[in-house]
Design a protein that fits this description.
By secondary structure, the chain is α/β, with parallel strands linked by helices. About 45% of the residues lie in helices and about 10% in strands. It is built from ten helices and six strands; from the N terminus they run βαααααβαβαβαβαβα. The model has no long low-confidence stretch (mean pLDDT about 95).
Length: about 220
Amino acid sequence: MRPVMRTFKAALFDLDGTLIDTENQYTEIWGGIARRFRPDVPDLEYRIKGTTLTQILDTYFPEPGMRQEVVGILVESEARMVYEFFPGALDFIADIRAHGVKCAVVTSSDQKKMGVLRKAMPGFDDIFDRVLTSEDFAASKPNPDCYMKGMAAFGLTASECVVFEDAFTGLAAGMASGCFTVGLATFNPAELLKDKCHHVVSSFVGLDYDGVVRLLS
């Protein structure tokens, strides 16, 4: 089989835990929800990483009353969260965009959560060419539909796009999409990511357009 000839025309970024340092906050929030409502699923806060709220509710909180309480807790918690880019993320995005690379956020978050984030981070949308949320996808990660939609948004193929992810489900989605997939060891140790993606980096610090092109060659 001939090797895939890859180019770097678009970057498809997961959001929480990849670009934005929120993963530990979400782990704490969902851990509290799990202990209150689903003590029978002690690792729920880890099982749900990278999945949409709809999938989480359908799978673990199908009862309407419980569902409503969980959503209320989540909305209140997200309003109090701190939203900050990981070190190096903005520099990396600015560098690759200067080289003509399109940038999209491909997140399992819904528009309601993104509204909270946009209030906390004015100008967020100006950093990216597209922002795709859970409402844009037919299936949640690890299904590759989200990244297929990301490629389609720019009229590109998998060989022209690079996925950046931190969660196991997201890495699986990136790999299944056919894109070159970079794992960010921001939450999970690099040792656990190395067999789930093409390449692992500890952070965006020091990463640039030329470095990604070298990975693809």
